[in-house]
Design a protein that fits this description.
Belongs to the RNA methyltransferase TrmD family. Its EC number is 2.1.1.228. It is found in: Cytoplasm. The structure is a single chain. With about 270 residues, this protein is α/β, with parallel strands linked by helices. The chain folds into 2 domains: about 160 residues, Alpha/beta knot (3-Layer(aba) Sandwich); about 70 residues, no CATH class. About 30% of the residues lie in helices and about 15% in strands. The chain is built from 8 helices and 11 strands. A hairpin with a 5-residue loop joins strand 10 and strand 11. The two termini are about 45 Å apart.
């Protein structure tokens, strides 16, 4: 996979040289190219922003340097990449989207600063490319570079051969089809006792069915406590009979259609 990032802060992307992403780059599984937007300016101050039409606070990134930079990136490869625009007003970036983007051979990221990029840039390249405006959360950051790091790591770890164990990501929280898309439960390793706290006995029982059921129950408990919307938003086909019993213990109730709702008196453990 090839990844291009156009930014006014190339140094911000240095973490892409370490950990799993860095190793994937070193092995040639990931071709990451970082481009300095200011290299496509033509004044002595390397200006990339200007005041917004219509007034208002902040500055807006100019279309000319973005157009030149993106044209240069597109001319350097074959085919049409997917262009990813990090923005708090975009579609939520999810594990499902990470899986979808991991299937693409070429992604171009356009992290903005200030109040964002002149809308004409998005319209121009949206007419030529598959443009995805994506948000990593309901909050505003100083720029789009941090979201790029988040998205690249989420995508890169899904590429074949990047993780040491090919099955590692299949039961991730939010993985499509994993644990009915519940949050992942707690994990443990050696030693079996630490500061008086022991590993749950079932995990060393060797009984695979019991272990799987325990993990499922713990995923239900964690999801109930931290992301109840994943339970209320799931259809009745997403839970088996044991799931329903566990959810009932946690204070959930079923309606006539088999969907779950939280009883007002329910208290999380």
């Amino acid at each position: 996979m090839r990844l291009d990032v156009v930014t006014i802060f190339p140094e911000y992307l240095e973490p892409l040289n370490v950990s799993l992403v860095g190793k994937a780059r070193a092995r040639g599984q990931l071709d990451v190219r970082v481009h300095d937007l200011r290299a496509h300016t033509h004044d002595r101050h390397h200006t990339v922003d200007d005041t917004p039409y219509g007034g208002g606070p902040g500055m807006v990134m100019k279309p000319e340097p973005w157009g030149e930079a993106l044209d240069a990136v597109l001319a350097s490869g074959e085919g049409r990449p997917v262009m990813v625009v990090p923005t708090p007003s975009g579609r939520p970036f999810t594990q499902e989207l990470a899986v979808e983007l991991a299937r693409e051979p070429w992604l171009v990221f356009t992290p903005a600063r200030y109040e964002g990029i002149d809308r004409r840039v998005i319209e121009e390249y949206g007419a030529r490319l598959d443009v995805r405006e994506l948000s990593v959360g309901d909050y505003v950051l100083a720029g789009g570079e941090a979201p790029v790091l988040v998205m690249v790591e989420a995508i890169a770890r899904l590429l074949p051969g990047v993780l040491g164990n090919a099955d590692s990501h299949r039961d991730d929280s939010f993985a499509p089809g994993a644990m009915a898309e519940l949050l992942e439960g707690p994990v443990y390793t050696k030693p079996p006792e630490w500061r008086g706290r022991t590993v749950p006995e079932v995990l060393s029982s060797g009984h695979h069915g019991r272990v799987a059921r325990w993990r499922r129950d713990e995923a239900l408990r964690r999801t109930s406590a931290h992301r109840p919307d994943l339970i209320t938003g799931r259809g009745p086909e997403g839970f088996d009979r044991h799931d329903r019993a566990t959810l009932a213990e946690l204070g959930w109730r079923e309606d006539a259609d088999g969907r779950f709702w939280r009883a007002p008196e329910a208290v999380e453990e």
